[in-house]
Amino acid sequence: MVKICCIGAGYVGGPAMAVLALKCPAIEVAVVDVSRSRIDAWNSDRLPVLEPGLDAVVRACRGRNLSFSADVDRHVADADIVFVSVNTPTKASGIGAGRAPDLAYWESAARVVASAAASSSRSRSGTKKSTVVVEKSAVPVRTAEAMERILVAHGGEERAFEVVSNPEFFSEGTAVRDLLCPDRVLIGGRDTDAGRSAVRAVRDVYAHWVPEDRILSTTSLWSAELSKVAANAFLAQRVSSVNAISALCEATGADVSDVARAVGGDGRVGDGFLSAGVGFGGPSLQRDVLCLAYACERSGVAEAAEYWRQVVAVNEYQKSRFVRRVVSSMFGTVAGKKVAVLGLAFKKGVGDTRGSPAVDVCRGLLGDGARVTVYDPMVSEKQARKGVAARVQVARDAYEAAQGAHGLCVLTEWDEFRALDYRRVFDGMQRPAFVFDGRNVVDAGKLREMGFVVYAVGKPLDDWLSKGTRN
Ligand SMILES: NC(=O)c1ccc[n+]([C@@H]2O[C@H](COP(=O)([O-])OP(=O)(O)OC[C@H]3O[C@@H](n4cnc5c(N)ncnc54)[C@H](O)[C@@H]3O)[C@@H](O)[C@H]2O)c1
After folding, report:
1. Which residue has its alpha carbon closest to ligand 1 atom 27?
2. Ligand 1 touching residue 38 (CB < 6 A)
3. Where in the chain is the domain with CATH 3.40.50.720?
4. Which of 44, 309, 394, 448 would bridge 381 by S-S if both were Cys, CB 3.0 to 4.6 A apart?
5. Residue 268: which residues within 8 A CB-CB, separation 6 or more?
């Protein structure tokens, strides 16, 4: 029986291994983590990751061929294939702070693999045992080289290691669906006999449920590593492109939705990720763009680094432009005024506020003295205060948030914000009542008829806003 171990029971490791276990009943899968509380949560009825369908998948295989354990060394030593899915955040301090990925967790995992595997060198039959180590985390190009060096330094005569890159492309909120039916599975390895055999071993696992033509397994290690950050950078770049157009639309009276429809209608461009808004967010996009820019800089291609940095710069511009628009529309000051914020998650369908533009907008408004009350259907009060600031107020619903407010900002595209009774919202607000739609979800025409002053990203400006307010 093939044994798989995954180091890192996070957003990626947990769901990815649960689906693998579901689809491969003959493979024993252990997910390990240094965080005992995370492991306890995976073994409980309240999983640490909220994804539609995940509970059912875990229930179907936990205790059968899927286990969660804090005994990292034992499971790593036993495994034929070790996935490494630890966190790789942007460095907070030191060389490359704010730009380079922090590879400390990554290296600690490499050392765990090396020493645990070395302690169980010979297989039961006495032959030299080999372990395939799979990079699942998003890492800078050529990270596998460092991993190989650490492993070789520990491996000696007794143990063979082969490193393969298999980045994860699922989206938060649709993780289980994406894992069950991926549009592609990318596996990169060394062009040697051992490298090809390791890629084959990983490919055989996915072949249990993924059609062959979706498994891309002739890629080099470096291309596979680079593909993950490049894919996220392209997504971010599209959002920044349409947001840059949105600023010009507001200045000229064009409508960004019309422009995006016309541009995306060209089959060569495609229409995905072309919705203008308050900016991209989430745990990965910005980090991966910065990771790519840093790799360019370190590789001597400064112009390419600058190009990618501009994607992040436009995103920052879009968030601060939104805050300036709120303040300038409300007579140049929000000090002491209540501003309701609808939506804190970085996108609809998730309760994740990591990197959310809504968090930055709230901080900007608080910085200008506003009294901010937030409401998000999936973000708890504790999480909202932790993510934004202790002094933020948290409402139980959108109406409570808007009660007595001078302005209302829509910052996540939840469906329920489209369907609100805006007449009721209007009745509860101060006059003039402002709506700032950062996701283009409200019917601006209808709201104006009710008496709201409405700003919507990239749309022709309300008369009120075009008179004497610039951003
Ligand atoms: N979150 C996403 O939607 C997503 C999607 C695709 C790829 N990724 C990438 O996948 C990787 C993992 O992301 P995540 O969101 O699952 O991170 P996470 O922070 O949710 O989980 C990582 C886990 O690794 C554990 N860990 C760290 N070092 C360890 C060690 N030495 N031994 C054992 N456990 C260790 C941590 O305790 C943590 O529980 C990152 O590189 C991320 O960029 C994330």
Report:
1. 86
2. yes
3. 3-210, 221-471
4. 394
5. none
